Amino acid sequence: MTNEEKRPPGPPGVDLEQGTISYDYIKGNNFRVIHADGIWGGNAPQRGLIHMDVFSERWPIPKRTVNQFTEKEGVGEEIFEERISRNAVVREIEAHIVMDIAVAIKIRDWLSEKIEHYEKVTKEAKAKDGD
Fold first, then answer.
1. What whole-number distance in Å separates Cα of residue 94 and Cα of residue 84?
2. Mind listing the pLDDT tens digit for each residue in 75-122?
3. Which one of 35, 56, 77, 86 has the largest count of C-beta atoms within 10 Å of its C-beta?
């Protein structure tokens, strides 16, 4: 008998005797890792919502490059004076996130907890290295 077959009566994942609920985490078809260098956003026109754009920063990719070329040698060196490029750092928007205030508070608290843990572990590591 598999673990799924031993399920207690009631809704899936709920064990009323133990007072627990179980969650399985499954990656959706559109799952991807998003690198974040920053965020942009704020309160939405809709009351109680926050909009947040997550972006990554990078140097611009040229819009156009020109290289030397001959039929005999093929593609040669780039002629840098001919390069056309943006004159700014690119902030590529990776995702737009909309959340209500309750979710924003949960995210804030979760981040605070992770930051506090990081600072504690870092401080302990520095103290250990100083011995």
1. 25
2. 999 999 999 999 999 999 999 999 999 999 999 999 999 999 999 999
3. 56
d(CA 124, CA 33): 30
Structure tokens at 35: 């690198």
Amino acid (1-letter code) at residue 13: G
pLDDT of residue 13: 84
Of 38 and 6, the one with more pLDDT: 38
Calculate the alpha carbon distances from 126 to 95, 119, 130 in Å. 36, 10, 6
Q: What are 101's two structure tokens?
A: 């205030």
